[in-house]
């Protein structure tokens, strides 16, 4: 029995932990003993434990994100000194965990885990490094070059979830492109749409358009909510739903709330709330928060929208495809690998509410076209995004490294 230590960078729900959860479900427990080490507590910890995986929380380890989704610049620049100062202590902390668990292989679930990579390298343990996010360019490219060298030097195998993510790395024969995958048992196109709608108090007559990702500038929440008024002019009975973290405006105490506003930390959330106000008041827009029933939500939807303004892999797109739902996505690297334009959905310029509204209207107004797109997406998902096939490719990497 070989022991694999999976290190994950957070505790909240999102694409990376869900992908890891699917991988763990496919793992042959007669060959491998999995252990998960999360750098923060949260809902995913119980998710891992629920599938009988020994899971630990290590708050003494800090990650270091330099991705298109989160990097320490602009409003987060103030975090950079603290992250830099915690890097070497985090390396030392990871080494202690490695010496305790004595894994045969270390699997890092994000590009943000450079400290863990250095620790495993110093301990002489083979590393599989999963790159699930495109690297940020930053101001001068210094941190980008540093992280690319870390990945190239420390990882015995690198798994990139898209060709675009792989292209951000230093060229190497250690890189494998294995697409993110979806569990067709969970995201089952056979889920009854009427029952799903009843679950969310939706009527059969409504046109339901869903965005997954919550209130997030990189995810494109603002252009999504701004498109709603234009869609309603043509389709009055449309409902927009946003699932994921809700807008976070202000704070519970007056002074932190004031400081937050002066630093413009919540500026984007305020813009989203300002644009959403009338639609929320009329019931045409709902923010559902983080959900455990995403497959039910997709089943209840007529269309999924992925309006990202930065390139990255779009897990909601492949989840919608598995459930035979058409999609509208930003024409960026990442979605371009997942959507066949005018076949499984539409690719449109990012950050343009007018074009987004036109695309949504075009699909909702043609049910035959929407159904054909959903079916084509489903066939593509079967071919490219099946959890069993793609997990097996990952496990073959384990065999290469452990048996070598």
How would you describe this structure to a colleague?
With 404 residues, the protein is of the alpha/beta class. The strands form two sheets. The chain has a seven-stranded parallel beta sheet with strand order 3-2-1-4-5-6-7, with helices on both faces. Strands 10-9-8-11-12-13 form a six-stranded parallel beta sheet, with helices on both faces. Strand 8, helix 9 and strand 9 form a beta-alpha-beta unit. Helix 8 crosses helix 12 and helix 13 packs across helix 15. The longest helix is centred in the C-terminal third of the chain and has 18 residues. The protein is globular. The two termini are 16 Å apart.
Show the helix and strand layout:
Blueprint: E1 2-8, H1 15-26, E2 32-38, H2 43-50, E3 54-57, H3 80-85, H4 87-101, E4 105-108, H5 114-122, E5 127-131, H6 142-154, E6 157-160, H7 163-167, E7 175-177, H8 193-199, E8 207-212, H9 221-234, E9 238-243, H10 254-262, H11 267-282, E10 285-289, H12 294-300, E11 303-306, H13 315-322, E12 327-330, E13 345-348, H14 353-364, H15 367-384, H16 387-403
Parallel strand pairs: 1-2, 1-4, 2-3, 4-5, 5-6, 6-7, 8-9, 8-11, 9-10, 11-12, 12-13
């Amino acid at each position: 029995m070989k022991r694999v230590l999976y290190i994950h960078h957070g505790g909240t729900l999102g694409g990376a932990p869900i992908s890891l959860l699917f991988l763990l479900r496919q793992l042959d427990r007669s060959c491998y003993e999995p252990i998960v080490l999360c750098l923060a507590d949260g809902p995913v910890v119980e998710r891992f434990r629920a599938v009988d995986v020994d899971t630990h929380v290590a708050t003494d380890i800090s990650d270091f994100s330099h991705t298109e989704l989160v990097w320490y610049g602009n409003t987060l620049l103030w975090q950079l000194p603290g992250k830099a100062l915690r890097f070497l202590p985090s390396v030392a902390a990871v080494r202690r965990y490695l010496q305790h668990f004595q894994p045969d292989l270390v699997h890092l679930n994000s590009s943000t885990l450079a400290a863990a990579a250095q620790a495993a390298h110093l301990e002489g343990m083979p590393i599989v490094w999963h790159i699930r996010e495109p690297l940020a360019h930053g101001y001068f490219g210094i941190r980008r070059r540093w992280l690319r060298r870390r990945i190239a030097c420390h990882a015995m195998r690198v798994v990139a979830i898209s060709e675009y993510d792989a292209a951000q790395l230093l060229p190497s024969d250690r890189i494998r492109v294995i697409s993110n995958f979806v569990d067709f048992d969970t995201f089952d196109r056979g889920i009854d749409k009427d029952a799903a709608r009843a679950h969310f108090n939706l009527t059969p007559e409504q046109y339901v358009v869903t965005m997954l990702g919550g209130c997030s500038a990189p995810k494109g929440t603002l252009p999504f909510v701004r498109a709603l008024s234009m869609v309603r002019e043509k389709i009055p009975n449309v409902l927009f739903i946003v699932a994921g973290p809700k807008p976070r405006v202000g704070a519970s105490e007056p002074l932190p709330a004031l400081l937050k506003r002066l630093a413009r930390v919540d500026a984007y959330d305020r813009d989203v709330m300002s644009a959403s106000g009338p639609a929320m008041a009329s019931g045409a827009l709902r923010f559902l928060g983080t959900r455990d029933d995403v497959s039910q939500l997709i089943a209840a939807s007529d269309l999924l929208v992925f309006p990202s303004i930065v390139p990255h892999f779009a897990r909601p797109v492949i989840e919608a495809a598995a459930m035979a739902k058409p999609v509208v996505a930003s024409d960026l690297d990442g979605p371009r690998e997942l959507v066949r334009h005018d076949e499984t959905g539409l690719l449109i310029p990012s950050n343009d509410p007018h074009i987004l509204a036109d695309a949504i209207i075009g699909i909702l107004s043609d049910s035959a076209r929407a159904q054909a797109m959903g079916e084509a997406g489903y066939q593509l998902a079967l071919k490219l995004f099946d959890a069993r096939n793609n997990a097996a490719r990952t496990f073959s990497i384990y065999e290469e490294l452990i048996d070598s």
